[in-house]
Amino acid sequence: MWALCLAALLIISITHWVYRWRNPRCHGKLPPGSMGLPLLGETLQFFTPNTSSDIPPFIKKRMKSYNITDPDLNYFVFQQEGNLFQSWYPDTFTEIFGKQNVGSLHGVMYKYLKNMVLHLFGPESLKKMIPEVEQAALSKLQQWSCQDITELKDATASMIFDLTAKKLISYDSNKSSENLRENFVAFIQGLISFPLDIPGTAYHKCLQGRKNAMRMLKNMLQERRAESQKQPVDFFDYVLEELKKEGTILTEEIALDLMFVLLFASFETTSLAITLAMKFLSDHPLVLKQLTEEHEMIIKQREIADSGLTWKEYKSMTFTFQFINETVRLANIVPGIFRKAVREINFKGYTIPAGWAVMVCPPAVHLNPAKYENPVAFNPWRWEGVEVSSASKHFMAFGGGMRFCVGTDFTKVQMAVFLHCLVTKYRCEAIKGGDIVRTPGLQFPNGFHVKIMEKDTRNRKQRYIAADA
Ligand code: HEM
């Protein structure tokens, strides 16, 4: 009898729980859609990788059925950061990136960290960085031109990593006994994986990669602290100065988490953007032609052809910026931006309950045919005369609102300077690969192999004179 009662109770509880799962409490009308399976929701469909450049099938299907992904709501979400919505990423991300990473911090601490980063990657610092970026690009291109074949994503990731690690922590991979980037590679490979932390799983390798990288960063910071006082040269020095200040809100853990996020955020994203840029150049000869002309013109207008890029020249690269915008629009490097509703939110007749997560989906915005004609086509000329210095309702490759990416200008400098070096001094031939595999977390280009060749620029000056005559 008791057993029967218990079984009945269990069935009633489960039924009630499933009912509640399917019909969550809400004081208004929920946005349309399905709650999927109990506990799992629609996670499996959501994570299905795809290789098309178009809007992910998961999103496309729901756009058709429910007419979701409203640009006004995306914009509203960004504008309401810290008020109705708050930056939020799934628990596994927080586990992986550190509980005190900049994306999970809010309020005063968040503003403080953002200012620190802007100190390093703001316009004043970037102006000084141009020669360094140019040198790094030239030396890598020279190195690649001596190879039969170069796998571009990995090669550019190593270039960007070396540059950023030098700026942040004066790290030199040639002089270090341990390879910091290797730990990041292990980390990235397991970033989008089932969160099962047992030896052999990708998630375990990811956590180990983070652990090793954090250990190296911590050791470096401690070594630096023990060194005698000298002129601050990198971000570590800046952090140490801040840590010494009376009443500082910065802690060593927060500084190390920030360092980790900055290294990751900078090299994984920009290297993908440069790889895709080169793929687009090899697929679109007219674009390559116009880009080359813009950069040849910069050199032509100099008194000394090899005098090195200046900030003024960088700022004059109109077509290059169109090309970069178009590349990041189609690349959709960050395919989803997460927020949490701080309280119940009513928008256009729907209610988002407090505590619910929302995902802004940049691909749906960037590939919207109502805004971009023939949206999957690569067409840098569509940006002619369009000023894109921050986010808009129709362009959010770097996020939007208060949390707009602090590394945007750094990325643009690196891309523009790299392209300048490439098109004025080298030729690139695609050998194989280059398709992109998309998941809701990251994009992985399928081995894009190229051959880099030096251009003959010896008689450039004479060519200009002849062309002018
Ligand atoms: C193509 C290159 C890049 C893309 C597409 C990109 C994209 C984004 C996006 C979409 C966000 C907003 C995330 C959110 O709102 O939750 C973001 C934030 C951020 N990005 Fe980037 N990023 C790039 C390069 C960089 C670089 C080079 C750095 C480092 C210097 C960087 C550092 C950051 C940081 C620290 C944040 C967090 C800002 C915050 O929470 O306020 N990013 N990025």
From TrEMBL:
Q: Name one GO biological process term.
A: brassinosteroid biosynthetic process
Q: Which SUPFAM superfamilies match?
A: Cytochrome P450
Q: How does it sit in the membrane?
A: Single-pass membrane protein
Q: Which InterPro entries match?
A: Cyt_P450 (IPR001128), Cyt_P450_CS (IPR017972), Cyt_P450_E_grp-IV (IPR002403), Cyt_P450_sf (IPR036396)
- Where does it mainly reside? membrane
Extract the Gene3D superfamilies matched here: Cytochrome P450
Q: Does the keyword Transmembrane helix apply?
A: yes
Q: Which residues bind heme?
A: C405
Which cofactors, if any, are listed as required?
A: heme
Check the UniProt entry and state the signal peptide residues, or none: 1-20
Q: Where in the cell is it found?
A: Membrane
- Enumerate the UniProt keywords alphabetically: Heme, Iron, Membrane, Metal-binding, Monooxygenase, Oxidoreductase, Signal, Transmembrane, Transmembrane helix
Is Heme among this UniProt entry's keywords? yes
Which Gene Ontology molecular function entries are recorded, alphabetically? heme binding; iron ion binding; monooxygenase activity; oxidoreductase activity, acting on paired donors, with incorporation or reduction of molecular oxygen
* CC per GO annotation: membrane
User: Which protein family is named in the record?
Assistant: Belongs to the cytochrome P450 family.
From the Swiss-Prot or TrEMBL record, give the protein name: Cytochrome P450 87A3
* Protein source organism: Prunus yedoensis var. nudiflora
